[in-house]
């Protein structure tokens, strides 16, 4: 078993390296231009580096913290060459992410049965695909999974989730289009309890309407589920599209204001050079990035590991 895990870990790391290839290449291209003809990390280089980090979608707040850490290091070490900048950046960004007291560990809490995950996010971010891949991973671990199609405002949403349930081989609870989403959530949780399921994954509508309506809708779904399981949902997972860069920050602000998001999934990192958004979102919102999507395969939705992410991000091609 340990031998298998080592091989799986290696494959997972290779997927992460490949998925962040565009982000890494774009980042190093910008860094190279910023330090060309310079040998020492000085104020000018740090100003250029700040621009590179912001242009790489790391976000202004997180960029300031990274630059501050590097400034302190430069002041301490007196002379720091530009040839050391890659290593220093890697170490300081890793340190910043690992210093986050909300850094994610583990997958689901096995003491909660069934463990209820409510998935939120706007349409088009990869929400349904994320749910399908999660269901596959949980089932591969030997867990009994039930899906709930509580996005009843789009027929396509229920159809897509049904296709994933059939593909993965897990049951789905659904109702007619236009049904009350809270009713679907209630039926799903009730079915999961009756069938001794381990994990429940509830899809919700991806409309980013005004915050009051969104809050009311999600709050109602939570209240109804709590009639069956008092502390449900155990996880409110916000799915963000990494390829949208700063727009992902805005969505995170909207949804964290509307409901008690306690986990994030950042998808579509393989198709973009905006992987830096994971660093900013992880640090700025103090909500753990739990999953990252780095490819199309079922196994390309990975548990986020800050150290490994930064290692892949800084891997020169």
UniProtKB/TrEMBL annotation:
Topology in the lipid bilayer is annotated as:
Peripheral membrane protein
Compartments where located: Cell membrane; Cytoplasm
One GO MF term attached to the UniProt entry: signal recognition particle binding
NADP as a keyword of this entry, yes or no, is no
CDD domains found in the cross-reference section: FtsY (cd17874)
Family note: Belongs to the GTP-binding SRP family. FtsY subfamily.
Recorded hits in PANTHER family, A to Z, give: SIGNAL RECOGNITION PARTICLE RECEPTOR SUBUNIT ALPHA
Q: Which residues bind GTP?
A: 121-128, 203-207, 267-270
Report the catalytic activity.
GTP + H2O = GDP + phosphate + H(+)
Q: What's in the keyword line of the UniProt record?
A: Cell membrane, Cytoplasm, GTP-binding, Hydrolase, Membrane, Nucleotide-binding, Receptor
Cite the InterPro entries for this sequence.
AAA+_ATPase (IPR003593), P-loop_NTPase (IPR027417), Signal_recog_particl_SRP54_hlx (IPR013822), SR_rcpt_FtsY (IPR004390), SRP/SRP_N (IPR036225), SRP54_GTPase_dom (IPR000897), SRP54_N_sf (IPR042101)
Name the EC number(s): 3.6.5.4
Q: What is its main location?
A: membrane
Pfam families given in the database record: SRP54, SRP54_N
Q: What does this protein do?
A: Involved in targeting and insertion of nascent membrane proteins into the cytoplasmic membrane. Acts as a receptor for the complex formed by the signal recognition particle (SRP) and the ribosome-nascent chain (RNC).
Q: Name one GO cellular component term.
A: plasma membrane
Ranges where the SRP54-type proteins GTP-binding domain occurs = 288-301
Instruction: Return the protein name.
Output: Signal recognition particle receptor FtsY
């Amino acid at each position: 078993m340990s031998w298998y895990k080592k091989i799986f870990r290696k494959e997972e790391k290779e997927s992460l390296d490949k998925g962040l290839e565009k982000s890494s290449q774009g980042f190093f291209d910008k860094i190279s231009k910023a330090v060309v003809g310079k040998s020492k990390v000085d104020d000018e280089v740090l100003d250029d580096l700040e621009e590179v980090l912001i242009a790489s979608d790391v976000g202004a707040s997180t960029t300031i913290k990274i630059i501050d850490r590097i400034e302190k290091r430069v002041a301490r070490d007196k002379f720091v060459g530009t040839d050391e900048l890659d290593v220093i950046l890697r170490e300081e960004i890793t340190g910043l992410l690992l210093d986050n007291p909300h850094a994610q560990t583990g997958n689901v809490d096995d003491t909660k049965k069934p463990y209820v995950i409510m998935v939120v996010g706007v349409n088009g971010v990869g929400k349904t695909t994320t749910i399908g891949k999660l269901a596959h991973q949980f089932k591969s671990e030997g867990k009994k999974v039930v899906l709930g199609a509580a996005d009843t405002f789009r027929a396509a949403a229920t159809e897509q989730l049904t296709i994933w349930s059939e593909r993965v081989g897990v049951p789905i609870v659904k109702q007619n289009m236009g049904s009350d989403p809270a009713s679907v959530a209630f039926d799903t949780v009730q079915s999961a309890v009756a069938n001794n399921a381990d994990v429940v994954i509830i899809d919700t509508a991806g409309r980013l309407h005004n915050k009051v309506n969104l809050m009311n809708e999600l709050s109602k779904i939570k209240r109804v589920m709590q009639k069956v399981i008092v502390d449900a949902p155990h996880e409110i997972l916000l799915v963000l599209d990494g390829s949208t860069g700063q727009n992902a920050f805005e969505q995170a602000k909207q949804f964290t204001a509307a409901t008690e998001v306690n986990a994030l999934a950042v998808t579509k990192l393989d198709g973009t050079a905006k992987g830096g958004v994971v660093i900013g979102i992880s640090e700025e919102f103090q909500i753990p990035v739990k999953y990252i999507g780095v490819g199309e395969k079922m196994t390309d939705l990975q548990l986020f590991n800050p150290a490994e992410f930064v290692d892949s991000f800084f891997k020169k091609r």
